[in-house]
């Protein structure tokens, strides 16, 4: 059961901090301070959905919520994002509250007991108090009990991750690119098994004498598939220190999935005699618990097969160096902000090539358009600011354990300014030693007469 609360949520070290309070209490302001000063990532602003799972209250953003946080007087601001986080602390914002450390207290969320504290969002030490509460392992600034200390000293040493067999379970929406993803893993050295019946999963993964990395495709078309038994099998595999298990969920926008089924003339496995869109909707409801539990949730809506293969190799290749896969995409605001975007840059303030009859039929891939955009008097400062910000933020994202970063650049029609700036942004990232995957979501759909 999922329910929505009026609260902002950020994640510190992967643990959620829910900020509650009436409008004007400072929820977004404190969240922005935690992001800027403590390296937090935004989960949801103003509205947060909570789901009880595995003994934890898991926070997520409601569908359709902008991938940004509101700053009073500054509008929507892009911020580092994380899709979900188990709630470790609830902070009730009460103006005038003065405590040395957050007060020992608890609150129940969806039947789960979570530490709670009261703070004044304007307290200069509010960020430090939240950090102490979360990183101290409790919401109250309390200290470990003697039993806690005994358990910590008697705990066995963790298994060597390098010695564990790598297991990648690939699931997701039918038509989202699972087969392409699996072929890419096979190319980089994985043993691949697709459409494995669920009752054989444990035997294949734990086969005696096998330490070859294995990638296994399982979805609603697999024999004996059911969500709850799949999650039970996943928990059992993750509990084995001899295995390093990653669950990758491939997702895609409904309209794109519907178009893919129409183009290939294939029948959706759940549609039967109904329209494709009904089968897609039924599947999405069925597999949502898998997406919630995934280590990697990859939206393939704007990725061609080459980009998807690049992502698979970058994130799960056996000889890959540590680091994120970075995606840069241009888009048209009139078609909506890409839902997978972590950072969004609006470049509609730049000089519009659409106003020049000679440039109108061209795109941002043409040098003349790129030169026109770069000659805007504000562009040098914009470029320098973007470069400085990415130089600082990308390593921070990596330290937080982020697997991939999507940067979206938008203009009105997605044809001129956003394309040119996205190309330049990719060049900036290459100059920082990165290898971004570059795409232009709406370039093929932009009409020559449309503002861009």
From TrEMBL:
Residues 167-313 form the RapZ-like N-terminal domain. Keywords: ATP-binding, GTP-binding, Nucleotide-binding. PANTHER family: RNASE ADAPTER PROTEIN RAPZ. NCBIfam families: PRK05416.1. This is RNase adaptor protein for sRNA GlmZ degradation, contains a P-loop ATPase domain. Residues 324-443 form the RapZ C-terminal domain. Pfam families: Hpr_kinase_C (PF07475), PapZ_C (PF22740), RapZ-like_N (PF03668). GTP binds at residues 219-222. SUPFAM superfamilies: P-loop containing nucleoside triphosphate hydrolases, PEP carboxykinase-like. ATP binds at residues 172-179. GO terms for molecular function: ATP binding; GTP binding; phosphorelay sensor kinase activity. It comes from Limimonas halophila. It comes from the Bacteria.
């Amino acid at each position: 059961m999922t329910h929505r609360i009026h609260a902002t949520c950020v994640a510190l070290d992967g643990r959620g901090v829910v900020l509650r309070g009436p409008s004007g209490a400072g929820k977004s302001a404190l969240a922005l301070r935690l992001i800027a000063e403590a390296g937090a990532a935004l989960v949801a602003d103003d509205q947060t959905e909570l789901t009880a799972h595995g003994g934890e209250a898991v926070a997520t953003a409601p569908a359709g919520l902008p991938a940004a946080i509101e700053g009073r007087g500054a509008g929507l601001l892009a911020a580092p994002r994380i899709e979900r986080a188990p709630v470790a602390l609830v902070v009730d914002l009460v103006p005038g509250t003065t405590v040395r450390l957050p007060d020992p207290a608890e609150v129940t969320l969806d039947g789960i007991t979570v530490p709670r504290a009261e703070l004044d969002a304007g307290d200069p030490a509010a960020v430090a108090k939240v950090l102490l509460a979360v990183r101290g392992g409790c919401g109250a600034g309390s200290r470990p009990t003697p039993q806690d200390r005994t358990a910590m000293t008697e705990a066995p040493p963790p298994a060597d991750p390098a010695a564990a067999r790598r297991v990648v379970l690939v699931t997701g929406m039918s038509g989202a690119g699972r087969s392409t993803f699996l072929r890419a893993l096979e190319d980089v050295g994985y043993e691949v098994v697709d459409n494995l019946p669920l009752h054989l999963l444990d035997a294949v993964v734990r086969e005696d004498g096998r330490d070859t990395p294995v990638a296994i495709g399982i979805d609603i078309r697999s024999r004996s598939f059911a969500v709850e038994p799949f999650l039970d099998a996943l928990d059992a595999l993750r509990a084995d220190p001899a295995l390093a298990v990653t669950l990758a969920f491939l997702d895609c926008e409904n309209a794109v999935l519907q178009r893919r089924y129409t183009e290939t003339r294939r029948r959706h496995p759940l549609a039967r005699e109904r329209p494709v869109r009904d089968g897609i909707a039924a599947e999405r409801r069925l597999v949502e618990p898998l997406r919630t539990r995934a280590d990697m949730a990859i939206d393939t809506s704007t990725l061609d097969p080459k980009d998807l293969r690049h992502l698979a190799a970058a994130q799960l290749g056996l000889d890959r160096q540590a680091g994120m896969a970075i995606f840069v995409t241009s888009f048209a605001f009139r078609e909506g902000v890409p839902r997978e975007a972590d950072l969004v840059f609006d470049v509609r303030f730049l000089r519009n090539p659409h106003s020049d009859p000679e440039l109108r039929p061209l795109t941002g891939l043409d040098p003349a358009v790129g030169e026109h955009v770069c000659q805007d008097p504000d562009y040098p400062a914009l470029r320098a600011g973007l470069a400085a910000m990415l130089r600082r933020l990308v390593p921070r994202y990596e330290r937080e354990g982020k697997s991939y970063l999507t940067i979206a650049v938008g203009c009105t029609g997605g044809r001129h300014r956003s394309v040119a700036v996205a190309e330049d942004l990719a060049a900036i990232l290459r100059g920082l030693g990165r290898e971004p995957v570059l795409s232009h979501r709406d370039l093929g759909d932009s009409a020559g007469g449309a503002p861009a």
